[in-house]
Design a protein that fits this description.
It is built from 5 helices and 7 strands, in the order E-H-H-E-E-H-H-E-E-E-E-H. The strands form 2 sheets. A 5-stranded antiparallel beta sheet has the order 2-3-1-4-7. Strands 5-6 form a two-stranded antiparallel ribbon. The radius of gyration is 16 Å and the shape is globular. The chain has a single domain, classed as Alpha-Beta Plaits, CATH 3.30.70.1060. The chain starts with a strand and ends with a helix. By secondary structure, the chain is of the alpha+beta class.
């Protein structure tokens, strides 16, 4: 199933980064994108405003999507929202529309809580 990873970041904090921090962030996102490509799950990836970026991945289930979201550099400095991509094409008055529904947001605190809960299982 396809999942959208929507990366939200504080625009003011992004603008305040030093050139070295920007270089490090670009390297981190490049490495993450390469991991997604090597795993064969990347369907699309882009950066745009007001989002820090987005990835469309194809993984077996929500747990796998959350695991990949946890590895995203954006989870360390913002929030990664995970949405199942329910592209239910429906014909309505001759028009096709796509529905996106449901989401899970991850930030560093949520990731730590999820890791602790999984460790207790």
């Amino acid at each position: 199933m396809e999942y959208l990873l929507l990366i939200h970041a504080d625009a003011a904090a992004l603008k305040a980064r030093s050139p070295a921090e920007i270089t490090d962030a670009v390297a981190a996102y490049s490495a993450y994108t390469e991991l997604l490509e090597e795993a064969g799950i990347l369907r699309d990836g882009k950066t745009d405003e007001p989002l820090a970026g987005r990835y469309l991945i194809d993984v077996p289930d929500l747990d796998a999507a959350l695991a990949w979201a946890a590895r995203c550099p954006g989870a360390g400095h913002g929030t990664v929202e995970v949405r199942p991509n329910r592209m239910a094409e429906k014909e309505s008055y001759g028009a096709t529309f796509h529905a996106l529904s449901g989401f899970h947001a991850l930030n560093s605190k949520a990731l730590l809580q999820a890791a602790c809960l999984r460790a207790l299982r």
